[in-house]
Amino acid sequence: MTDGWNWRQPDGTPTTANVPPHAGPSAGSSAGPGGVGGPAPSAWWSDALHDPWRNPQTPTAVVVQAPPLGVAMLPEPVTDPDAPRRRATAPVFVVTLVTALLAGALGGALGFAFAARSGAGGSGTVLGSQGGEAPAVVQRRPDTLAGVAQRLAPSVVTVRVNGGGGSSVGSGFVVTADGYVITNDHVVEASSGRATVVFNDGSTESATLVGKDPESDLAVIKVSRSGLTPVEFGDSESIAVGDPVLAFGTPLALANTVTAGIVSALDRTISAGEPGGQVRYYAAIQTDAAVNQGNSGGPLVDGAGRVIGVNSVIKSLAVDESAAGNIGLAFAIPINQAKRVAQELIDTGKARRTVIGAQVSGVGVGQEGGVRIAVVDPAGPAAGAGLRNGDVLLRLDGRVLEEPTDLIALVRKYPPGAVVTVEYRRGTDRQKASVTLAADAK
């Protein structure tokens, strides 16, 4: 019984049936044991001597042909057909490079867009030396909040006043190139007529009082310096609740401070003043921008850097005024009113007060509320429009009237000669009248 591997008989004679199919001349031999001069069969496996199925009596040997002299034998390369093929790296590298470039470009574009919108954009130019000679100044885009702050900085000043047994610190802003500055009356009320103005670069100038109007809480001072950068005025009648704003000033003696917020409300009527002192009336712009003591007189500006108000009042939970601080309720005098008063102070040293020609004594009754007229001046605007004693005023140009303060503050906001529409109730009848406001006789 054989499995085909034993292809010689025990005496060494090869059998015909078991001669390997590839038997041929053995390397280095011309005759094999099966015949004289004929080709000798050669081993067709490489480890015949150690084959466990080999006939131990068969003296077969494997003869390997020696390589030519001087030629080194190198192993034949072997390829595993089942091994995973290695992909070409060039296409992968190209795809990776293109993806990285696209991702970088997209990231840079988004980063620039967000930075420009928030004011931290990389589109600015760096001015100044990096070698220690001067600090570098990053110039922001003019339409960002940071750009607005940089543009307004030279126009905002700190106002220091000594007098009345103490000193006070407030703010102001330049309105003409030759040195006129607007501030609050309550900032300079203790002044003997002089103040010190500190600019954003730290330089100082003495200032003289031009005029003030305690009831509207506005004042104008002047410094002897030319070539100043005046602010740009906005229109306080064109702003809306939700518009972004910046407040500038020197809160708690911290000069060159800028805070941000929005317009929280319009025509917020307020009366303020100490008992026995001057009562001030405001139809104010309310904002949640952080404002503290020392911000008084500084500008409130819109997102384009135009002044829309004069920071004047804060509302606080503190009983003591000296302990009052920001709780997100600050109020500014509308710039349309401030411009008019300031111009009159510059031109004449005093401001006209707008009146309606009627005195109110209390609130109306019923669901509509309103304020009741106690006395009508026979020669005043109210009488000219047909209003009478006892009429209940409900609205002034669409603004609801709930307290006597509302009527006074709103009337003061308008210039003399302005025409306003008044809704009123007489008995059970509801009527309207057009009133031409006037300046008082003072």
Automatic annotation (TrEMBL):
InterPro entries: Chloro_Bact_Ser_Proteases, PDZ, PDZ_sf, Peptidase_S1_PA, Peptidase_S1_PA_chymotrypsin, Peptidase_S1C. Residues 1-58 are annotated as: Disordered. The keyword DNA repair does not apply. GO terms for molecular function: serine-type endopeptidase activity. GO terms for biological process: proteolysis. It comes from Micromonospora pisi. The keyword Cell wall biogenesis/degradation does not apply. Keywords: Hydrolase, Membrane, Protease, Transmembrane, Transmembrane helix. The chain crosses the membrane at residues 92-115. SMART domains: PDZ. This is Putative serine protease PepD. Residues 20-30 have a biased composition (Low complexity). Belongs to the peptidase S1C family. Residues 345-426 form the PDZ domain. SUPFAM superfamilies: PDZ domain-like (SSF50156), Trypsin-like serine proteases (SSF50494).
